[in-house]
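re: that chain from earlier
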Amino acid sequence: MLSKHDMENLKNLIELAASGDAAAQYRLAAHYDRSGKQAEARQWTEKAAAAGHPGALYTQATQLLSAKPEDMCIGEAVTMLSLAADAGGAAALRQLAVLSALGLGVERNWKSAVARLAQAARLGHPAAMRELAVLAAIGGDRQTSAALLREAAVNGDWIAIYLALRRGDVLSDEEGKGLAIKMRGAGVPLAQRLSDPDGKSGAAQEVDFREITAAAAKVDPAACIGEAKTLNTDPAIVHFENALTVEECDYIICASAALLTPSKVVNPEKSKADHAQYRTSDGAMFGLLDLDLTLIAIYARLAQIAGVPFENCELMGILRYAPGQEYFPHHDFLPEDAEDYSEVKRSGQRIRTLLISLNDDYDGGETTFPKLDVSLRGAPGDAFLFHNTDDQEKPYPKSLHAGAPVKSGEKWLLTLWCRARPFWFWV
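^ sequence. v structure.
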């Protein structure tokens, strides 16, 4: 129930929106959206977008990009994002950067993607600042990137806060102590890792966008990192050390935390993914609107390690196992059903699986192969690649594997399933 004061404010907002004020129209759309009045929200968003409001254009574009692949109007979404970007919309620039990195609706070009991201960061978008800072660190310029990571943190980006506290050389002691308390009280993942500054933390520095952008543009999204060690030959199981850095692992954990839901598995009888008692973890998938350039760089590198084209990979999946949670023995190769829910006919089998350990502060939780007497557990950033089928996509029964129960702590794991043929719908 709105108060008399709020009612008066809403009346004024409606009058202002009706007069053609685009900003008021967008605020009114947001009000109706929060109130559950979706039809009214859409109506005022459309009016604001028609008037060129960057936020409204971005909202409409993301709605188009969140549709099912067959219903996605990519060209129209790109047009809206471009108009919003031209009007100074930082969020639109950041989304255009993702599309450019993927080659979806625009030319696939990493340097162009980084340039758009840098422009969004210059406009003060905290997530873009954080993303650019991490990319610059991956590109070898950790010192210069620290200034931008600090800016993102003090402007409220909680992933930047987490990364800055973990690095320890980004925030001043006063900033770090206050933000560490805030993070521990907010229920962030693995908050026990965060400690108060010890007097060695950094202080404010001027942001050099030119150097940071140059470092981020140097990142090779398909660069393969890590020494390979064969653990089994039939089927192949290979261990890659240091495929990701600890900071990249932290980034993935933080980026996925808000997306976690109880894990599902493919149910061929129902032609859908369904909850199952034999998989008791929480899971998340990075969809198109969840990706950013840092995640895409990681995504492409993991495809290189797996030895498949980037576009043959499914969406990156994250699993979190709490104490007592496990995944009973199963295969990753897919059943073929009448409706081809698993898209085996279109994209082929899951020929390989790549598992990446994201943390190691837990007990239990090993990945076991009961028919091979192999048990896997890696340090943060270690990757394990195993084959589910032979070169003709014939399944390997011996690839049966399981996630043992976690005894204490939380286990975080990244899973990348690799198909025999392109999986991305726009390829």
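The radius of gyration is 23 Å.
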